Amino acid sequence: MSPYRTLRAGIFLPPFHPNDEDPLLCMERDFELMQWLDTLDYAEAWIGEHHSGGYEIYGQPELFIATAAERTRRIRLGTGVISLPYHHPFMVPTASSSSTTRRADGRCSGLARGSCRRMR
User: Fold this and answer.
1) Could you tell me the pTM of the whole model?
2) Strand, coil or helix: 46
3) DSSP letter at 98?
């Protein structure tokens, strides 16, 4: 290990995919991207969560992370971000911990309040 700090690359993967493509092929392409990033020694990958039905296909990024963790070795995987208003409060840590059981380095998590606003 170098005595100096080094800048390492990372990626944010928004789950945007064309509506006219097969979602399974889009996911497989994203898994292959994670494998390439791991091979290229990227430090981390943040997987986005969106709920638009069709165009953005990862409503629960923990499932994507669990599968990507099986296919990679070194890259740290994280949620960027979990929109808390869309999930039950007990399910967020449960899903998060279940996707980290295989990786010794754990996982990164991003949390947000989402777009829900308080009514007055």
Assistant:
1) 0.76
2) strand
3) H
